[in-house]
């Protein structure tokens, strides 16, 4: 059944301190969990800031808040301090909510609950339809939410996103209880709340699409210089970097190293309006990279803090390779038994790290402690540690040998 309108209609957008105070009072007086969602302008604006906040709580109805006009939501956060927040894919929205002074102490993530329960499709629309029987219209998920004023049909879409979120939470909670997975979910939700803020990625320019084609350090320096130039321009103009200059233009500059405007215009991706406005900056960036001494060129690869790529293990350490294969088999079998994705039972990075550097004593307790040190939750270690230890003990009994040095 299609869900076409919010129960109380589309609420007006809250864009003044006075109206925000009224929302704070209403939600403080409400009851039960609060549904929370945020709309960003990814692909249009620089960064991941929120351009609309949606809330719904029993007794308070739905509120649509313009965080551009009302950038400080500390009072709202205090009003909801002891309330369970219901979000879908919480990690996507929590960073932009935190920028506005909003951080839950207690949350329920409907997407993560769906994963733990083994639902085949865990998008909000799919889960609302399969569990509650309503079809949500999802046509505006990639819209430019920095648009002002926001069109009425966008606001309707935004209000509907929180309309049934608490209902979905209640149905999933019942299913978690029935399957004995509620404690798993609570541990996962607590881990999200307690997680420290993400640190900036080292050398983010290395994530440029197509950089695998760039095979020497001088060309990598061009990627870095052009990427950083694009980042400065995008920040200044408040535009998504890809709208200033697409990634494939950066890699083509690195591969072709243009020296003149004519060379630059031979690259098709530089012919867009925004890209052409900054051609002088692109050429200067390429020139700076060409002039760098070898000592200042970036390394071909970043030194890793973990094990080498798994495809090299068989040659470098066949014992570790055998452990990894065995661990993956154990995790996959347990995940299948408990009807959840393998990556939600145990993160693949933890599997690799533990297989490469296992505890000296391969026993359930030591494997459990090692898993906890790698960030596994108690429920994950309880399920995995003993079967993994037994599998590795069987490998030891077979006597797989390390390569001779």
SSE order and pairing:
Layout: E1 13-14, H1 17-29, E2 31-40, E3 50-58, E4 61-65, H2 74-79, E5 85-87, H3 90-99, E6 107-109, H4 110-116, H5 124-132, H6 152-163, H7 165-179, H8 182-194, H9 217-237, H10 241-244, H11 247-256, H12 261-265, H13 273-277, H14 279-291, H15 313-316, H16 318-337, H17 342-345, H18 348-356, H19 364-373, H20 378-398
Parallel strand pairs: 1-4, 2-5, 5-6
Antiparallel strand pairs: 2-3, 3-4
Question: What does this 3D model show about the protein?
Answer:
With 405 residues, the protein is α/β, with parallel strands linked by helices. It has three domains: 13-194, Ribonuclease H-like superfamily/Ribonuclease H (Nucleotidyltransferase, domain 5, 2-Layer Sandwich); 204-296, DNA polymerase, domain 1 (Orthogonal Bundle); 310-398, DNA polymerase, domain 1. The chain has 20 helices and six strands. It has a six-stranded mixed beta sheet with strand order 1-4-3-2-5-6, with helices on both faces. α3 links the parallel β5 (85-87) and β6 (107-109). α9 packs antiparallel against α14 (279-291). The longest helix is centred in the middle third of the chain and has 21 residues, at 217-237. The model has no long low-confidence stretch (mean pLDDT 94).
């Amino acid at each position: 059944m299609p869900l076409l309108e919010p129960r109380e209609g589309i609420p007006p957008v809250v864009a003044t301190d006075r109206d925000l105070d009224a929302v704070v009072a209403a939600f403080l007086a409400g009851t039960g969990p609060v549904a929370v969602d945020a709309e960003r302008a990814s692909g249009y604006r620089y960064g991941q800031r929120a351009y609309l906040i949606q809330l719904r709580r029993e007794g308070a109805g739905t509120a649509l808040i313009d965080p551009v006009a009302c950038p400080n939501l500390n009072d709202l956060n205090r009003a909801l301090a002891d309330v369970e927040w219901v979000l879908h894919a919480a990690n996507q929205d929590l960073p932009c909510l935190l920028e506005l002074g909003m951080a839950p102490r207690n949350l329920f993530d409907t997407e993560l609950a769906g994963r733990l329960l083994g639902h085949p499709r865990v998008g909000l629309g799919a889960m609302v339809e399969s569990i509650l029987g309503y079809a949500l219209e999802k046509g505006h998920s990639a819209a430019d939410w920095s648009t002002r004023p926001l069109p009425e049909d966008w606001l309707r879409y935004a209000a509907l996103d929180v309309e049934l979120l608490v209902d979905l939470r209640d149905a999933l909670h019942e299913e978690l209880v029935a399957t004995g997975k509620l404690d798993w979910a609570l541990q996962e939700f607590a881990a999200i709340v307690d997680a420290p803020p993400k640190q900036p990625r080292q050398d983010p320019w290395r994530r440029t699409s197509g950089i695998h084609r760039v095979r020497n350090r001088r060309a990598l320096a061009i990627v870095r210089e052009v990427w950083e130039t694009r980042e400065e321009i995008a920040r200044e103009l408040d535009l998504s970097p890809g709208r200033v200059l697409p990634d494939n233009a950066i890699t083509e500059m690195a591969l072709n190293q243009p020296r003149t405007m004519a060379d630059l215009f031979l690259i098709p991706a530089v012919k867009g309006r925004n890209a052409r406005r900054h051609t002088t900056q692109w050429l200067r960036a390429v020139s700076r990279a060409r002039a760098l001494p070898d000592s200042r060129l970036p390394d071909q690869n970043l030194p890793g803090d973990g094990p080498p790529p798994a495809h090299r293990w068989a040659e470098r350490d066949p014992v570790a390779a055998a452990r990894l294969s065995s661990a993956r088999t154990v995790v996959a079998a347990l995940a299948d038994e408990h009807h959840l994705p393998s990556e939600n039972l145990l993160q693949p990075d933890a599997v690799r790290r533990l297989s490469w550097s296992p505890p000296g004593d391969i026993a359930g307790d030591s494997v459990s402690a090692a898993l906890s040190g790698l960030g596994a939750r108690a429920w994950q270690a309880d399920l995995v540690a003993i079967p993994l230890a037994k599998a590795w003990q069987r490998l030891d009994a077979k006597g797989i040998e390390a390569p001779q040095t």
